[in-house]
């Protein structure tokens, strides 16, 4: 017996409401985040992730309130991402009741931020969120994957696999690996991306992007993921947490 | 209703511990006040992050004295995660050695495993006669998040003292997941984040240790 593979529903939150859009561009309302968090907890979710999709345009206080109310009634780990730019943002989220925060764009602009956060709050609560896609234009990166910003629309030319390794060096405790090519397609996880990142980091890797059917989950674990994250397939009831665990269990993967 | 103090020494998400204890019926205060922490029916010492950093914070609120004074009077203390680790003699993280409270001999050091931090839900092996794990099946999982741990239990058995009950977990190798030693209890995992299983453990502690 060892540590169980985690199944993590992600709630994209805009102004205090859960949304999920294909590639983050078409947002659809799917409910109250606090209620949904409680439902996922009851269904056996191993952790919850809240992603503040409109953090850049304000509503920060709303998100803190959502985190506080969720932590009042859900007793499993909660990660919050979106718009985390400074150690003070991390502090506010942890104080509101988050256990981990994920950092994305702000770290691309200034990687040292990850080290500062990890030193102050501990590696265990700093997650590096990497939005990766295959290089479409310009010079290819060594891994063929690059880091993107703006929900996958803007390439940075930074090698996504090297960036994950750099994040670990700087002290993050986990990599949230989002395939922007697979995101919204429901055609399966990007296994090559997971394998490449797994080879260069020994912190946990959460695979995200592309989950559409039960059979998509076991290959992601075989590719090296320690956890799987999905949003819309869970929100719209297309897949249940328990079903994902059953299919993993049948594949000899330990689950809770 | 048991009066529980969650010791606030600037470490981590104290609200989780507060809420989880309240959920199982405790009257909870989060404070760094010396007298309140000494006088409570039960004291919870949480902790996340680096060992040395937690010890600094703990020393700043005279945490070791609070713990020592409580234990001298047989008053229950529960350490959680780094709050358990600091109860041991010393911690070694990235070559930096720091003194702990020294309630038990032993060293907190980096666990040898392919993937660290050890993050997620794992099973534990509790000894028979355990109070904390009473009523919990052997396949019950608790939420862990740590890279360091106690890899060897060093307290020698003697006839003079009743040996503590030690619970183990495995990730890459075995490490201490829990200790029950009279009034002093500790878990490496986070009961406050372990859903219903964690609630059961906290309830066991409240009912049968704090009383």
UniProtKB/TrEMBL annotation, chain A:
<comment type="similarity">
    <text>Belongs to the HisA/HisF family.</text>
</comment>
<comment type="subunit">
    <text>Heterodimer of HisH and HisF.</text>
</comment>
<dbReference type="InterPro" id="IPR013785">
    <property type="entry name" value="Aldolase_TIM"/>
</dbReference>
<dbReference type="GO" id="GO:0005737">
    <property type="term" value="C:cytoplasm"/>
</dbReference>
<keyword id="KW-0456">Lyase</keyword>
<dbReference type="GO" id="GO:0000107">
    <property type="term" value="F:imidazoleglycerol-phosphate synthase activity"/>
</dbReference>
<comment type="pathway">
    <text>Amino-acid biosynthesis; L-histidine biosynthesis; L-histidine from 5-phospho-alpha-D-ribose 1-diphosphate: step 5/9.</text>
</comment>
<dbReference type="InterPro" id="IPR004651">
    <property type="entry name" value="HisF"/>
</dbReference>
<feature type="active site">
    <location>
        <position position="131"/>
    </location>
</feature>
<keyword id="KW-0368">Histidine biosynthesis</keyword>
<dbReference type="InterPro" id="IPR006062">
    <property type="entry name" value="His_biosynth"/>
</dbReference>
<dbReference type="GO" id="GO:0000105">
    <property type="term" value="P:L-histidine biosynthetic process"/>
</dbReference>
<comment type="function">
    <text>IGPS catalyzes the conversion of PRFAR and glutamine to IGP, AICAR and glutamate. The HisF subunit catalyzes the cyclization activity that produces IGP and AICAR from PRFAR using the ammonia provided by the HisH subunit.</text>
</comment>
<dbReference type="InterPro" id="IPR050064">
    <property type="entry name" value="IGPS_HisA/HisF"/>
</dbReference>
<keyword id="KW-0028">Amino-acid biosynthesis</keyword>
<dbReference type="Pfam" id="PF00977">
    <property type="entry name" value="His_biosynth"/>
</dbReference>
<feature type="active site">
    <location>
        <position position="12"/>
    </location>
</feature>
<keyword id="KW-0963">Cytoplasm</keyword>
<dbReference type="InterPro" id="IPR011060">
    <property type="entry name" value="RibuloseP-bd_barrel"/>
</dbReference>
<protein>
    <recommendedName>
        <fullName>Imidazole glycerol phosphate synthase subunit HisF</fullName>
        <ecNumber>4.3.2.10</ecNumber>
    </recommendedName>
</protein>
<dbReference type="GO" id="GO:0016829">
    <property type="term" value="F:lyase activity"/>
</dbReference>
From TrEMBL, chain B:
<feature type="active site">
    <location>
        <position position="192"/>
    </location>
</feature>
<dbReference type="GO" id="GO:0005737">
    <property type="term" value="C:cytoplasm"/>
</dbReference>
<feature type="active site">
    <location>
        <position position="190"/>
    </location>
</feature>
<comment type="subunit">
    <text>Heterodimer of HisH and HisF.</text>
</comment>
<dbReference type="GO" id="GO:0000107">
    <property type="term" value="F:imidazoleglycerol-phosphate synthase activity"/>
</dbReference>
<feature type="domain" description="Glutamine amidotransferase">
    <location>
        <begin position="5"/>
        <end position="207"/>
    </location>
</feature>
<keyword id="KW-0028">Amino-acid biosynthesis</keyword>
<dbReference type="InterPro" id="IPR017926">
    <property type="entry name" value="GATASE"/>
</dbReference>
<keyword id="KW-0315">Glutamine amidotransferase</keyword>
<keyword id="KW-0963">Cytoplasm</keyword>
<feature type="active site" description="Nucleophile">
    <location>
        <position position="81"/>
    </location>
</feature>
<dbReference type="GO" id="GO:0004359">
    <property type="term" value="F:glutaminase activity"/>
</dbReference>
<keyword id="KW-0456">Lyase</keyword>
<comment type="function">
    <text>IGPS catalyzes the conversion of PRFAR and glutamine to IGP, AICAR and glutamate. The HisH subunit catalyzes the hydrolysis of glutamine to glutamate and ammonia as part of the synthesis of IGP and AICAR. The resulting ammonia molecule is channeled to the active site of HisF.</text>
</comment>
<dbReference type="GO" id="GO:0000105">
    <property type="term" value="P:L-histidine biosynthetic process"/>
</dbReference>
<keyword id="KW-0808">Transferase</keyword>
<comment type="pathway">
    <text>Amino-acid biosynthesis; L-histidine biosynthesis; L-histidine from 5-phospho-alpha-D-ribose 1-diphosphate: step 5/9.</text>
</comment>
<dbReference type="InterPro" id="IPR010139">
    <property type="entry name" value="Imidazole-glycPsynth_HisH"/>
</dbReference>
<protein>
    <recommendedName>
        <fullName>Imidazole glycerol phosphate synthase subunit HisH</fullName>
        <ecNumber>4.3.2.10</ecNumber>
        <ecNumber>3.5.1.2</ecNumber>
    </recommendedName>
</protein>
<dbReference type="Pfam" id="PF00117">
    <property type="entry name" value="GATase"/>
</dbReference>
<keyword id="KW-0378">Hydrolase</keyword>
<dbReference type="GO" id="GO:0016829">
    <property type="term" value="F:lyase activity"/>
</dbReference>
């Amino acid at each position: 017996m060892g540590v169980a593979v985690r199944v993590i529903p992600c709630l994209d939150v805009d102004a205090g409401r859960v949304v999920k859009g294909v590639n983050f561009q078409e947002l659809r309302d799917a409910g109250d985040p606090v209620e949904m968090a409680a439902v996922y907890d009851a269904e056996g979710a191993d952790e919850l992730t809240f992603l503040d999709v409109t953090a850049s345009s304000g509503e920060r206080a709303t998100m803190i309130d959502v985190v506080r109310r969720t932590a009042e009634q859900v007793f499993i780990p909660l990660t919050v991402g979106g718009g985390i730019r400074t150690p003070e943002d991390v502090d506010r989220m942890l104080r509101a009741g988050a256990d981990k925060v994920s950092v994305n764009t702000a770290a691309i602009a200034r990687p040292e931020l990850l080290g500062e956060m990890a030193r102050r709050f501990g590696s265990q609560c700093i997650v590096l969120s990497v939005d990766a896609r295959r290089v479409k234009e310009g010079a290819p990166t060594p891994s063929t994957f690059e880091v993107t910003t703006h929900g996958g629309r803007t390439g940075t030319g930074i090698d996504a696999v090297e960036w994950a390794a750099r994040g670990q060096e700087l002290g993050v405790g986990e990599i949230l690996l989002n395939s922007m090519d697979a995101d919204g397609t429901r055609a399966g996880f990007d296994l090559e991306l997971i394998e490449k990142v797994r080879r260069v980091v020994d912190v946990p890797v959460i695979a995200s992007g592309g989950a559409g059917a039960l059979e998509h989950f076991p290959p992601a674990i075989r590719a090296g993921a320690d956890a799987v994250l999905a949003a819309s397939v869970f929100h719209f009831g297309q897949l249940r947490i328990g079903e994902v665990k059953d299919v993993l269990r049948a594949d000899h993967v330990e689950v809770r | 209703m048991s009066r529980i103090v969650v010791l606030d020494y600037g470490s981590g998400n104290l609200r989780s511990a507060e809420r989880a204890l309240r959920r199982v019926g405790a009257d909870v205060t989060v404070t760094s006040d010396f007298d309140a922490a000494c006088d409570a029916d039960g004291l919870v010492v949480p902790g996340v992050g680096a060992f040395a950093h937690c010890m600094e914070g703990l020393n700043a609120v005279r945490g070791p004295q609070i713990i020592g004074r409580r234990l001298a009077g047989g008053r229950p203390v529960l350490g959680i995660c780094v709050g358990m680790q600091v109860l041991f003699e010393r911690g070694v993280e990235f070559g930096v050695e720091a003194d702990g409270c020294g309630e038990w001999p032993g060293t907190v050091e980096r666990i040898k495993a392919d993937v660290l931090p050890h993050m997620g839900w794992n099973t534990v092996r509790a000894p028979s006669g355990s109070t904390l794990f009473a009523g919990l099946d052997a396949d019950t999982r608790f939420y862990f998040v740590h890279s360091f741990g106690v890899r060897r239990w060093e307290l020698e058995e003697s006839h003079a003292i009743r040996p503590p009950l030690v619970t183990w977990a495995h990730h890459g190798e075995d490490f201490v997941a829990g200790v029950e030693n009279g009034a002093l209890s500790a878990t490496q995992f986070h009961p406050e984040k372990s859903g219903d299983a964690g609630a059961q453990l906290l309830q066991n502690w409240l009912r049968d240790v704090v009383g």
